[in-house]
Amino acid sequence: MNLANKLTIMRIFLVPIFLIFIAVKDIPCGTFIATVIFIIAALTDKLDGYIARSRNQITRFGKFMDPLADKLLVTAALVSLVEYHVIPTWVAMIIIAREFAVTGLRTVAASEGIVIAASAWGKAKTVTQIIAIIFALVTLNRENLLLDKITMVFIFLAVLITIVSGIDYFVKNKDVIRIDK
């Protein structure tokens, strides 16, 4: 269990803590604390990848758990933001559906001994989703028209890049899911 894997596990443990602070409305500064927890968890994603690569400590555990931790964090935030009526349900559904679809593609590929690495579009998707979610979390309990508009721009950008990245994965890996196999 190396440091990168420990950071991934920490990110997974931060998800329910994030959910407690964002869901329990009686906690003073709960949404602010949830936002800070989300930012810390998002930063551990960047940090654990850097540590694993720089120390040549990439593991099967990390390859499996790191994307899972990301999906848990983003899904928890999206569902919470839908509950707060900050983002429309369809936004969360598009993002979550893309995650399921690409995970399914990777699972099929892995069963054939093929590893589908993160693409530039996939990395851009992650960054825009994280930025959009942070903006959306910051808008909770605040009345600021400009901030709301900026948040929606980032949300729609995240949706657009999410769709493009999903298409990119399937186009580049169409041989993995050929029907005539």
TrEMBL record:
Presence of keyword Cell cycle: no
Membrane topology: Multi-pass membrane protein
Record's GO cellular component terms: plasma membrane
GO MF: CDP-diacylglycerol-glycerol-3-phosphate 3-phosphatidyltransferase activity
Reactions the enzyme catalyzes: a CDP-1,2-diacyl-sn-glycerol + sn-glycerol 3-phosphate = a 1,2-diacyl-sn-glycero-3-phospho-(1'-sn-glycero-3'-phosphate) + CMP + H(+)
EC number: 2.7.8.5
Domain of life the protein comes from: Bacteria
GO biological process assignments: phosphatidylglycerol biosynthetic process
Alphabetized Gene3D superfamilies for the sequence: 1.20.120.1760
Function as written in the Swiss-Prot or TrEMBL entry: This protein catalyzes the committed step to the synthesis of the acidic phospholipids.
PANTHER family: CDP-DIACYLGLYCEROL--GLYCEROL-3-PHOSPHATE 3-PHOSPHATIDYLTRANSFERASE 1, CHLOROPLASTIC, CDP-DIACYLGLYCEROL--GLYCEROL-3-PHOSPHATE 3-PHOSPHATIDYLTRANSFERASE-RELATED
Protein name: CDP-diacylglycerol--glycerol-3-phosphate 3-phosphatidyltransferase
Native source organism of the sequence: Clostridium acetireducens DSM 10703
Lineage: Bacteria, Bacillati, Bacillota, Clostridia, Eubacteriales
